[in-house]
Amino acid sequence: MRARAASRYNGIEMNCPKDGSPLESVELGPMSVDRCPECGGSWTGIEELRLLKDREAAGDYSWIDFDLWKDRDKFRAHRQQRYRCPRDGQPMTTVRYGDSTVTVDICGECQGVWLDKREFDGILAYLEDTVTSQTVGDLLKDLRHEFVEIFTGPEDPISEAGDFIRVLSLLERRFAVEHPNIVAWIPRL
Questions:
Q1: Pick from 114, 59, 48: which is nearest to 82 by CA?
Q2: How does pLDDT run across 47-70, given as a tens digit for each residue?
Q3: Mapping DSSP to helix (H, G, I), strand (E, B) and coil, where does residue 38 land?
């Protein structure tokens, strides 16, 4: 991770919505996010957030479509932070996603996301819990969904096939945990 120059959008310096400090562009592998050197918060586009999530846990979370805009019925308003988008100055909305305790601040105009210092860690903990709490039945439903997305999904077919294979691998591991006697019996066939 290497800090670069101050973050700019359309020639205008971007400042932290929390404390007003100039944001710095920080390289994280092949991508960059805009980070506040004072509070540690990060500004990212929705696609970059998805890519960061996909890199974690050796890709075990990559198949989970972390689309903040997909399940609007899961949104729950949270205590508003009254932040303004560092990119376009519009008010951001603080939301809690689904059943998690994760809160993020979202710009309705550019769909950028502000994450306070520990919020990305919270997202990863939520995803870990999602993966580890799923049953064989849950994963079978996910497998069917991922199969359909190979042909109709938002990503290219190769990426969607990768998601399918990832869920299939998780299903195999979950089946072994839930049904160890069957797994032990199979080699004897």
A1: 114
A2: 777 676 666 655 555 555 544 445
A3: coil
DSSP state of 90: P
- Would you give the distance in Å from CA 90 to the centre of its chain? 23
8-state DSSP, 103: E
Determine the pLDDT at residue 66: 47
Looking at residue 3, its pLDDT comes to 46
Residues 6+ apart with CB under 8 A from 183: 175, 176
Q: Render pLDDT for 128-137 as a digit per residue (tens, 0 to 9).
A: 787 788 889 9
Distance (Å) of CA 40 to CA 21, 43, 57, 106, 167: 11, 10, 22, 17, 33
Contact residues for 34 (Cβ-Cβ < 8 A; gap 6+): 7, 14, 23, 24, 25, 26, 42, 43, 44, 86
Please state, in angstroms and rounded to a whole number, the distance separating the CA atoms of residues 32 and 44.
8
The secondary structure of residue 154, as a DSSP letter, is S
Q: How many whole angstroms separate alpha carbon 188 and alpha carbon 120?
A: 45
In contact, 46 and 112? CB cutoff 8 Å: yes
14 Rama class: left (phi>0) / alpha (psi -120 to 50) / beta: beta
Q: What's the confidence (pLDDT) of residue 130?
A: 78
Chain centroid to Cα 185, Å, comes to 38
